[in-house]
Amino acid sequence: MTRSASSPDNADGCIGPHVSEAAVRRLAEAVARLANDPVCFLEALTDMLSALKPISVEKLSDNEVHFLIESGACGAEGWVETSAAVDRRSLQLRTTEAWLLALFATISAEDVTEFLGWNESDVTDAAADGRLYAIEISGRLRFPAWQFDAGSPSKLLPGLTQMLGIITPRWDWQSAAGFMATPQRNLVAQGRKTPIQWLRDGGDFDDVREIVEASDWS
């Protein structure tokens, strides 16, 4: 049923009290331009935003302050609890930004099937067995892209199964992606390397394992 022009939700082309239909269209167009699966990404973004706490004037919790410091929004030494510049709004924006960047670095099950040359059941079985890293987002399986290596005979990151065995019990998928893409001070060969680069270049898996088990990465 089409809403009438006088409907409260559609007054002056708005959805809800302040959001215009044009703004919603711009969001959909931006996701379609950036994402390889825009329907999935829009549904996932909607679910993620729905789970966020509404903005309020409440004091930030210790966990929220910790997130701001760890994400780089502010340094531990420079944190001032009463600062008006660091509030729940900035936390929401940074949480959403980090989540979107991590989601954009995932691949659909269909694309993984085509890339690996496997059939669909092989991919789902490998995910269930811990041989591939899969996460469920809005009812769909997504696969973090860091685990794939087009230059490898198997098209998988060398040492992937071992890697998954040590990171999945410790970190969520976003933290794992951050670690794999961060140059490590203990992985050095003509400069710091990320764990991805280290393993692709034939580096010793035990060097990466030691960093994970020490939870000491920077």
Structural write-up:
The protein has helices spanning 21-34, 38-51, 62-70, 88-104, 109-116, 120-129, 160-167, 173-180, 195-200, 205-214; strands at 14-15, 19-20, 106-108, 135-137, 140-144, 184-188, 192-193. It is mainly α and 218 residues long. The chain has 2 domains: 19-104, no CATH class; 106-214, no CATH class. It has a 3-stranded antiparallel beta sheet with strand order 3-5-4. Helix 1 crosses helix 2, helix 2 packs antiparallel against helix 4 and helix 4 packs across helix 8. The chain is globular and about 55 Å long. The model is unreliable at 1-9 (pLDDT under 50).
Structure characteristics:
disordered N terminus; two-stranded antiparallel sheet; mainly alpha; 48% helix; 2 domains
